[in-house]
Amino acid sequence: MARLFGTPLIKALIAFLLISAATATGDAPFILAHKKASLTRLKSGVERVSVSIDIYNQGFSTAYDVNVVDDYWPQDVFDIVSGNTSQTWERLDAGALVSHSFELEAKKQGMFYGAPAVITFRIPTKAALQQAYSTPILPLDVLAERPPEKKFEWRLLAKYGSQISVVSIVGLFIYLIVTPSKSSAGKASKKKR
After folding, report:
1. pTM, two decimal places
2. Is residue 1's pLDDT more than 50?
3. Keyword Nuclease, does the record have it (predicted)?
């Protein structure tokens, strides 16, 4: 075992891992962004898309001039109903979370594949703007013909209701027979004395 750690290749690999771990925990912001979109059908032919972007600073220092831009919603397919597709914050402290949301209304039917939002921020130690991307959204089937969902199937209750009630009554009867009552348990303990 001592001979295994004595080889120069293993020593170099261990040194590289230690140095990379030390630089990975450096004093810099680390931006993670999660983009979500959900569809809401208001009435036939009208559907809204609610978009929210959560931005986390998982690093060890503050990010400045944080800007999120999500301009990848085509104007021939969507209208902005509320909010903006971009937002700016002066700073994002280490471990902090900010959220941005807006709402769109769909004009055309079809599948839409959204792009990730772009987040730019500044680090005081670097002159160039840093860039991060959010997670992409799942494909949206906008204004799709969806059959109405049935919450409860009444036909099954009408067809199998009597069998279910008989089985449940028999099960309850067996449960009452098998489980001892409190009074019989008390009598058994008095007989042992």
Report:
1. 0.63
2. no
3. no
